[in-house]
Amino acid sequence: MPFLHKNLASGRWHALSLLEQMGNIGGEILRAEREEGKDQKMFLGAVARALELFDLTLDDPRWKGRRLEIGRAKEVFLDAVFGGKEYKSFLKDLTRYFEQFAYAARLHR
Fold it and tell me: Could you tell me the pTM of the whole model?
């Protein structure tokens, strides 16, 4: 399957810090939240991009000791996408969680 984020998948993603990676995932989650219940095509596109970024992050060898945490965040994201049945999660809550990474990444530049 071709990458949606071709530039990032070619290695640029692994040059970003964990804060930057998680903040970028949060950007896609925000896009999904904005389109949820409005534009299904845009919603599904944002979900697919977020999942790809989660996978790129999980594949980053620097975060070997953080894979459980990152994987759990992906699991909660998927729960929110499918209605929050397992964890009662909602995209708006995940957006608030992930935006903290984006703020922290800006502070550490």
Answer: 0.90
